C-alpha cells in the first residue's frame, strides 16, 4: 500500500468514530442461532406498534410508480406539514430522516475555524455532523444528565455558528420547560443558529415541554427538527423535517441531495401524519410501558433518569456493558451508553407490555446471576 487514505481524510473525519446503531434483530439471531421472532429489541427507540395501517396502504399505492424519481420538492408532504405547523411551505425542509436535517445544517453553516455547541450526553449525530465538516465541537457539561442551557449560552463564542439542543434529549430522556427555552432564545446571539431537535416531542403531553414551533416567529435563528421515525413509526423509511425561517430553509435546500426523500417515505409520512388514532395509541402504549418499566426497576432496586421520551436510561450501579452482553444471551437487545459517557446505564426503549416484561425478567435474572 503506497497511500494512507486515512491520513488523507480531513482531520475532523480522521478523528471521527462511526455512529454505533442498536444491534439488529437478525444479527443477534444469526449469532445465537435463535428464531428472530423470539428476540426482543428495545434498542433504537422504534415504535413497537409497527407502522400505521394507513401508511402501509399509502406505500402500496406507490409501488407502480417506483420507476419514477420522487417529487424532489415533496409538495404534498410539505404542504401538509406547513398547514399543520402553521407556517409557510417555504419554511419546511424535508430530510432523509431528521439526521439529514442536522447534516444539512452542519454542511451549510459549519466549517474549519467555526464551532458548534452542544451538551455532554447529547445525541451522537451532533459530534459526527460537526466534525465531518471540519468544525470544532464545544461540549458543555450536563447538569443532572440534562442540558445546562446557561452554561451552553456561556460557551457560545465569536466562532459559534450552531447550537444543537435535543428536547427531550436522547439518550437521557431529560427535558426542559418553556420558560427555560424562552430565556435561552432571548439571549442567544442572533447569528447563531439554534437547532432544536424535537425527535420525541410527540410523546410529551401537557404543557411541561415547549412546542418549538411557538418560538419561530420571534426567533429567525431557530430551526425545529422533527421526525417520522419515532412516534409515527416509520424509522425504516427515513423521513424527517425542519421548520425554520424561509431564508434558512432556502440555504438548506441548496446543499440538499435533489431527491433526498423517497416516494414511499413521502406517501407514508403524509398518511401517518393524518392518522391521529395511531399517534394516540403510540402515546398510550408508551405511557403505560414507561410506568411498567419504572415499576420493574423499583422492584429490582434500580434507579433511573426520569424521561419524557419513548425510552428510559436505567442506572445499574455497575458497568452496563457486561449486563448488555448477558441480556443479548437472553435474546433481549437494549442499548449500552458507555459511548455517551454513561458507563453504568443502559438505555431501554419502551416496548409492548409483553416485550417490557421479557426485558424486566431477563434483567432480573442477569442481575441475580
Ligand atoms: C432518533 C433521533 C433523531 C431522528 O432520527 P431520524 O430517524 O434520522 O429522523 C434525531 N434526534 C434524536 C435526538 C434522536 O434520538
TrEMBL record:
Annotated Aminotransferase class I/classII large domain residues: 39-360
CDD domains reported in the protein's UniProt record: AAT_like
Source organism superkingdom: Bacteria
Enzyme class: transferase
PROSITE patterns named in the record: AA_TRANSFER_CLASS_2 (PS00599)
Keyword Transferase: yes
Modified residues (N6-(pyridoxal phosphate)lysine): 230
Pfam family, one: Aminotran_1_2
Chain's gene name: hisC
Catalysed reactions, as listed in the record: L-histidinol phosphate + 2-oxoglutarate = 3-(imidazol-4-yl)-2-oxopropyl phosphate + L-glutamate
Name of the protein in question: Histidinol-phosphate aminotransferase
HAMAP family: HisC_aminotrans_2 (MF_01023)
